[in-house]
C-alpha cells in the first residue's frame, strides 16, 4: 500500500480529470490545476474513443455520461475514387464513439466535480521543487501548491515533461494539416458508417451526422508545420478555397466542401505526434496522456490511451509501497503498448498521401488489402479488446502488456 495521499494534477483536458477520478478511487486526493481561465468552450473538433478507452472510462464511472454525448460508429468503408468497399469490423466489441472535444472536456469536468475533485483555473505551472516527502508547484501568478506527487497531464507541449527531463523531445510534425466541418450535403451511407476516402490530392473521412448533414475531416499534405494560432489566423474562407481546390474532383469530397461554411470550419492545424519519451517520471513527478505518448490521430487511440494510462497509474500508486516502485511499474505496463500503437499510426500517415502510381493501383488492390493489411483481427484487435482489471493487484514486476 502506497503512502501517497495527495496529488497535484496539471492539466484539465482529458487525461487530467480521469487521472483525478482514478486516483480518488485509489484513495488519493487529487486537485486539478488548469492553465486556462475556464473549461473549454467550443474549442477543437471531434475525437474518437475506441472500445478500450470506453472500458477504461467505465473503471472511473463516467462511461455512460460520455457515450450519451457521442455518436457510435459501428461500420467502416474505404473509398478510392469511385470505388468503395465495406471494411470488416471486429466482433464482440462495442462501437467506436466520436465526440466533440469541448463537450468531452465539460462532461469529464462535471463528473469529476460532482464527486468532489477540486479544479483551480488560471494556474500556469512554471516550476516544481521536490521537498523530500512531497512536491511544491510554483505557478506563473506567484501562487504555490503542495502534495505528495505531481502528475503532468498537460498535453503534447507539456511543461512537466521539460521539468522531468530538460532534454526530452518535443512534438514532431506529421506532414499533414487537419480540418473539420459539418456539410449540408447528405452522403449515401448508413448512419453509424465512417468512410475513409483517398482523394486525388488528399485524404478525408466522413460520416452521417445525427440530426442531418455529414461531418467530415480532411488531412492535407503540408510542407511546413503551422502552429494552431498561425493556422487559425488564416481566414476560414481562404482555407475553404484551398480545400475546394484540393477536393474539387472528388466524390463526395467536392459536395462536402461546397456545402460547408466558413463559420462551421474547424481548423485543427498541423498534426503532431510525440516521438518516444525516454523518461516518464523523475522523483515525485510523472507524466500521463499526450505529455508522455501522443500517437497520430490516424491511430484513433490518442484519447483512449491517455485514459488507460490514468487508470493504470492509479492502480500502481494504490498497490505499491513507494513512489519510485509505483512509477516504474506504471511505465512497464504502458510503454510497449503505446509505442506499438504509435508505430501503427505512423504507417497509416504515410498512406494518407499516396503518389499518383499508388492512387492508380489502390482500387485494384482494395480487395486484397481488406483481407490482409486492413483485417481488424490482425491490426487493431489487440488494441481495442484491451480491458484493465482494476481489482487485479499490481506487483513490482508486472508482465508487459
Automatic annotation (TrEMBL):
GO terms for molecular function: FAD binding; monooxygenase activity. Residues 7-172, 279-343 form the FAD-binding domain. Keywords: Monooxygenase, Oxidoreductase. It comes from Micromonospora violae. Gene3D superfamilies: FAD/NAD(P)-binding domain. This is 2-polyprenyl-6-methoxyphenol hydroxylase-like FAD-dependent oxidoreductase. InterPro entries: FAD-bd (IPR002938), FAD-dep_Monooxygenase_BioMet (IPR050493), FAD/NAD-bd_sf (IPR036188). SUPFAM superfamilies: FAD/NAD(P)-binding domain.
Amino acid at each position: 500500500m502506497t503512502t501517497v495521499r495527495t496529488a497535484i494534477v496539471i492539466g484539465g483536458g482529458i487525461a487530467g480529470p480521469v487521472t483525478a477520478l482514478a486516483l480518488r478511487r485509489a484513495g488519493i486526493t487529487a486537485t486539478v490545476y488548469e492553465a486556462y481561465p475556464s473549461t473549454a468552450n467550443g474549442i477543437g473538433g471531434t475525437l474518437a474513443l475506441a472500445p478500450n478507452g470506453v472500458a477504461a472510462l467505465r473503471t472511473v464511472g463516467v462511461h455512460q455520461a460520455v457515450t450519451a454525448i457521442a455518436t457510435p460508429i459501428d461500420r467502416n468503408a474505404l473509398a478510392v475514387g469511385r470505388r468503395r468497399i465495406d471494411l470488416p469490423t471486429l466482433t464482440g466489441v462495442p462501437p467506436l464513439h466520436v465526440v466533440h472535444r469541448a463537450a468531452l472536456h465539460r462532461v469529464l469536468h462535471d463528473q469529476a466535480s460532482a464527486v468532489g475533485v477540486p479544479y483551480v483555473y488560471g494556474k500556469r505551472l512554471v516550476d516544481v521543487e521536490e521537498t523530500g516527502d512531497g512536491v511544491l508547484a510554483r505557478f506563473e501568478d506567484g501562487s504555490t501548491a503542495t502534495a505528495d506527487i505531481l502528475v503532468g497531464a498537460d498535453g503534447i507541449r507539456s511543461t512537466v515533461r521539460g521539468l522531468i527531463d530538460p532534454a526530452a523531445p518535443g512534438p514532431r510534425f506529421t506532414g499533414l494539416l487537419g480540418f473539420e466541418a459539418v456539410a449540408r450535403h447528405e452522403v449515401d451511407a448508413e448512419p453509424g458508417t465512417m468512410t475513409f476516402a483517398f482523394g486525388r490530392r488528399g485524404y478525408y473521412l466522413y460520416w452521417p451526422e445525427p440530426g442531418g448533414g455529414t461531418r467530415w475531416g480532411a488531412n492535407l499534405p503540408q510542407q511546413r508545420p503551422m502552429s494552431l494560432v498561425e493556422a487559425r489566423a488564416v481566414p476560414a474562407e481562404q482555407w475553404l478555397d484551398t480545400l475546394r481546390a484540393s477536393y474539387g474532383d472528388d466524390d463526395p469530397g467536392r459536395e462536402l466542401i461546397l456545402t460547408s461554411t466558413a463559420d462551421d470550419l474547424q481548423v485543427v492545424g498541423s498534426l503532431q505526434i510525440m516521438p518516444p519519451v525516454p523518461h516518464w517520471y523523475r522523483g515525485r513527478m510523472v507524466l500521463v496522456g499526450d505529455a508522455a505518448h501522443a500517437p497520430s490521430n490516424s491511430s484513433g487511440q490518442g484519447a483512449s490511451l491517455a485514459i488507460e494510462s490514468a487508470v493504470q497509474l492509479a492502480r500502481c500508486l494504490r498497490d505499491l509501497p513507494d513512489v519510485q516502485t509505483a512509477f516504474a511499474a506504471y511505465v512497464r505496463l504502458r510503454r510497449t503498448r503505446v509505442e506499438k500503437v504509435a508505430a501503427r499510426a505512423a504507417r497509416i500517415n504515410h498512406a494518407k498521401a499516396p503518389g499518383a502510381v499508388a492512387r492508380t493501383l489502390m482500387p485494384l488492390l482494395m480487395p486484397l488489402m481488406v483481407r490482409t493489411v486492413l483485417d481488424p483481427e490482425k491490426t487493431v484487435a489487440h488494441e481495442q479488446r484491451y480491458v484493465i482489471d482494476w481489482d487485479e493487484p499490481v506487483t513490482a514486476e508486472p508482465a508487459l502488456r
